[in-house]
Design a protein that fits this description.
single chain, 4 helices
Protein backbone atom coordinates (compact mmCIF):
# COMPACT_ATOMS: atom_id res chain seq x y z
CA UNK A 1 0.00 0.00 0.00
CA UNK A 2 1.45 3.42 -0.92
CA UNK A 3 2.48 5.70 1.92
CA UNK A 4 0.23 8.70 1.37
CA UNK A 5 -0.61 9.31 5.02
CA UNK A 6 -0.14 12.87 6.06
CA UNK A 7 0.93 14.09 2.63
CA UNK A 8 0.30 17.78 2.18
CA UNK A 9 1.03 20.23 -0.56
CA UNK A 10 4.44 21.80 -0.27
CA UNK A 11 4.42 25.56 0.02
CA UNK A 12 7.94 25.94 -1.33
CA UNK A 13 9.35 23.92 -4.21
CA UNK A 14 11.61 21.16 -2.93
CA UNK A 15 14.51 19.60 -4.74
CA UNK A 16 14.15 15.96 -5.86
CA UNK A 17 16.40 14.67 -3.06
CA UNK A 18 14.27 16.30 -0.37
CA UNK A 19 11.09 14.97 -1.94
CA UNK A 20 12.46 11.41 -2.07
CA UNK A 21 13.60 11.67 1.56
CA UNK A 22 10.10 12.84 2.48
CA UNK A 23 8.55 9.77 0.84
CA UNK A 24 11.04 7.55 2.68
CA UNK A 25 10.31 9.17 6.03
CA UNK A 26 6.55 8.83 5.53
CA UNK A 27 6.97 5.12 4.73
CA UNK A 28 8.86 4.54 7.99
CA UNK A 29 5.73 3.10 9.62
CA UNK A 30 7.21 2.27 13.02
CA UNK A 31 9.16 5.55 13.26
CA UNK A 32 12.46 3.89 14.16
CA UNK A 33 14.44 5.99 11.65
CA UNK A 34 15.24 3.10 9.34
CA UNK A 35 13.47 1.28 6.53
CA UNK A 36 12.74 -2.43 6.67
CA UNK A 37 12.27 -4.52 3.52
CA UNK A 38 8.51 -4.04 3.73
CA UNK A 39 8.80 -0.30 4.25
CA UNK A 40 11.28 -0.08 1.39
CA UNK A 41 8.83 -1.97 -0.83
CA UNK A 42 6.18 0.59 0.18
CA UNK A 43 8.57 3.39 -0.87
CA UNK A 44 8.91 1.95 -4.36
CA UNK A 45 5.20 1.23 -4.54
CA UNK A 46 4.56 4.89 -3.72
CA UNK A 47 7.06 5.93 -6.39
CA UNK A 48 5.21 3.82 -8.96
CA UNK A 49 7.69 0.97 -9.49
CA UNK A 50 6.39 -1.91 -11.61
CA UNK A 51 8.01 -4.51 -9.35
CA UNK A 52 8.38 -2.77 -5.97
CA UNK A 53 9.52 -5.94 -4.18
CA UNK A 54 12.37 -6.51 -6.63
CA UNK A 55 13.29 -2.83 -6.66
CA UNK A 56 13.36 -2.83 -2.83
CA UNK A 57 15.62 -5.89 -2.80
CA UNK A 58 18.01 -4.26 -5.29
CA UNK A 59 17.98 -0.97 -3.37
CA UNK A 60 18.67 -2.77 -0.10
CA UNK A 61 21.74 -4.42 -1.56
CA UNK A 62 22.88 -1.11 -3.03
CA UNK A 63 22.39 1.14 -0.02
CA UNK A 64 22.72 -1.11 3.06
CA UNK A 65 26.34 -0.30 3.91
CA UNK A 66 26.47 -2.07 7.27
CA UNK A 67 24.61 -5.19 6.09
CA UNK A 68 22.00 -5.18 8.88
CA UNK A 69 19.07 -5.60 6.47
CA UNK A 70 17.74 -2.07 7.05
CA UNK A 71 18.28 1.31 5.47
CA UNK A 72 19.20 3.57 8.38
CA UNK A 73 18.88 7.33 8.39
CA UNK A 74 22.61 7.56 7.61
CA UNK A 75 22.11 5.42 4.48
CA UNK A 76 19.18 7.49 3.13
CA UNK A 77 21.49 9.58 0.91
CA UNK A 78 22.81 6.46 -0.79
CA UNK A 79 19.22 5.26 -1.28
CA UNK A 80 18.22 8.66 -2.68
CA UNK A 81 21.08 8.46 -5.18
CA UNK A 82 19.94 4.97 -6.17
CA UNK A 83 16.37 6.20 -6.73
CA UNK A 84 17.57 9.09 -8.88
CA UNK A 85 19.84 6.78 -10.91
CA UNK A 86 16.82 4.55 -11.56
CA UNK A 87 14.73 7.51 -12.74
CA UNK A 88 12.50 7.99 -9.69
CA UNK A 89 13.19 11.71 -9.41
CA UNK A 90 10.33 14.19 -9.15
CA UNK A 91 10.26 16.86 -11.84
Amino acid sequence: MPCYKGMQRAVLPLNPEEMLKGVMQRCDEDGDGRLSKKELRDVFNTLGAYFPGLRAWLALHYADSDGDGYISHDEFNKLVNYCIECGYAFK
